[in-house]
Amino acid sequence: MKPIAKFEKLTAFKKLSALIIIIVAFISCDKGNLPPVAKLVAFPAAGDTTVLFDFSAEGSADDRNYPIGLVFRWDFNGDGIWDTEYSKTNAIAHKYRVSGKYEVKVDVKDIDGLTSIATDSIEVYAYNQDIDTLTDPRDGNRYRIVKIKDRWWMAENLRYGTEIPTDREQTDNDTVEFYRNPYSKYKYVDSIGGVYLWYESMNYRRENPQGICPDGWHIPAKTEWESLFTGGKQGIGGYYYYDLYSVQYYRENGPSNLNLDLSNEAERWKDGFFAWSYQFGGGFWSSDSRYITDPPYFVYYPYECYFNSLTLHISVGCWVNLPSNDHTPLTSYLSVRCIKDN
């Protein structure tokens, strides 16, 4: 082989080798350390000045370092002033003294000094002092009412109408009828009111949300019940379940003063036996319903709000007992709370 040809072949080989080295180096090169990925979760999303809010940055990560190498600092009110120094504390709790909406920040730093910030928001309510009374002009009954998110709600269960014994049916007549719980755990029986069939509570006019409430008031719609709570998650049977804060805030003697734990609920069984189940929680009617057309069912199934602070349970949904022949609107008796018209 001629020396020139051999030299050219060697040169081409070196060029190819150099190109391969460059490509491999490019592919495998260290692009440098990246900032950590900061994540922040606040719980609950809303609370009052008695609630201890939990903030977690446990989901934060780094591309080169183990999470143990990260440090964190916190800004609880989003004012740009860090309320803590850097530490390895990736979860922290804080209580607010003043109501309002707050942006919470966490600053995450790795061992190379690179940082990343994550934010979340919460809403803090003051202890509710918007309390008044409503006198029902129809019978003179007085109810404590409270203002929640710019809406006035009854803080007691409705007790309008004529009390009848449980061996008599509530029927569509000229008289509003209710049953009173003889086994109530409450001394102030009037506050828990009576229980009504859904049709009775609607005054047998499904299209009129006033139902048996006083003029200027109505039975809350499904969305009005839902507006009270935060963190709704779809559950089985069309129910939405809500966070534990809502249970604490709206329970009997809770900071909202709405007292939803005035448990009062009953059911009439097929054999005519009337059962009170207050110990399992209370239920409240909604003015909304869902029409079920699946044969042989042609009936309106009402939405209701179920509340029990003992089991930390609250839900808003539609009672559908399919394929039972006992239609909920005709067998279940719940309390009524009224909300003031806008």
What attributes does this structure have?
342 residues, alpha+beta, Immunoglobulin-like, 2 domains, 5-stranded antiparallel β-sheet, 4-stranded mixed β-sheet, 6 helices, 23 strands, elongated
Any overview of this molecule?
This protein is an alpha+beta fold and 342 residues long. It folds into 2 domains: 41-125, Immunoglobulin-like (Sandwich); 131-340, no CATH class. The protein has helices spanning 3-28, 189-192, 198-201, 222-226, 244-250, 328-331; strands spanning 41-43, 46-48, 52-56, 71-75, 91-95, 100-109, 115-125, 131-135, 142-148, 151-154, 162-163, 177-180, 194-195, 217-218, 233-234, 240-241, 265-268, 274-276, 282-292, 299-308, 313-318, 332-334, 339-340. It has a 5-stranded antiparallel sheet with strand order 15-16-21-20-19. Strands 2-7-6-4 form a 4-stranded mixed sheet. Strands 1-3-5 form a 3-stranded antiparallel sheet, with no helix packed on it.
Explain the layout of strands and helices.
Blueprint lengths: L2 H26 L12 E3 L2 E3 L3 E5 L14 E5 L15 E5 L4 E10 L5 E11 L5 E5 L6 E7 L2 E4 L7 E2 L13 E4 L8 H4 L1 E2 L2 H4 L15 E2 L3 H5 L6 E2 L5 E2 L2 H7 L14 E4 L5 E3 L5 E11 L6 E10 L4 E6 L9 H4 E3 L4 E2 L2
Parallel strand pairs: 2-7, 11-12
Antiparallel strand pairs: 1-3, 3-5, 4-6, 6-7, 8-9, 9-10, 12-13, 14-23, 15-16, 16-21, 17-18, 17-22, 19-20, 20-21
